[in-house]
Specification:
This protein is α+β, with helices and mostly antiparallel strands. 33% of the residues lie in helices and 24% in strands. It is built from 4 helices and 5 strands; from the N terminus they run βααβββαβα. Strands 1-2-3-4-5 form a 5-stranded mixed sheet, with helices on both faces. Strand 2 and strand 3 form a beta hairpin. Helix 1 packs across helix 2 (34-46). It is globular and about 45 Å long. The termini are far apart. The mean pLDDT is 94.
Length: 153
């Protein structure tokens, strides 16, 4: 049984994190592109545009990453407070059901509270019922008041 820990990722974690991020993107229908995943993560971390947390086990050369959560900062104009967008949450298929999703969600909640944010917001696909159950078990409330619109180019 692996002993998982929640930790903030840094540039030194990109090589270990990139395959996991690439797998996440593939889960959502994108073609695998490990180099694009690596460069995207490097840019977000280097430019301090996101905060990434990992669920990891092992130390040093034996360290392995099995889950990730990426947060982007935003703001609520209505409440004039910061808010974090939980944009990416992923756990490897072989480790799902072992509490890593909960570990990551509890960790990002503590991080967001520590920054004085209003809270966290996220979206998930309508057919991803496993993720929906996890979010609701962690206290997230499904929005029944607002529609979400996108204009992508």
């Amino acid at each position: 049984m692996l002993n998982f820990r929640f930790e903030r990722a840094g540039l030194e974690d990109v090589e270990e994190l990139a395959p996991l991020f690439d797998e996440y993107r593939s889960y959502y229908g994108q073609a695998s592109d490990l180099e694009a995943a690596r460069e995207f993560l490097k840019a977000r971390l280097s430019n301090e545009e996101s905060v990434i947390f990992i669920a990891a086990a092992g130390e040093g050369a034996d360290k392995r990453t099995y889950g990730m959560a990426q947060l982007y900062p935003s703001f609520s104009s209505i409440t004039v407070q910061p808010v974090w967008i939980l944009n990416d949450l992923f756990v490897t298929a072989e480790q799902r059901g072992h509490g890593l999703g909960s570990l990551l969600l509890e960790g990002v909640r503590g991080f967001a509270q520590g920054t004085g944010a209003k809270g966290l917001t996220l979206s998930t696909m309508t057919h991803n019922t496993g993720a929906q159950r996890l979010y609701e078990a962690q206290g997230y409330i499904r929005d029944e008041s607002f529609f979400t619109y996108h204009l992508y180019f």
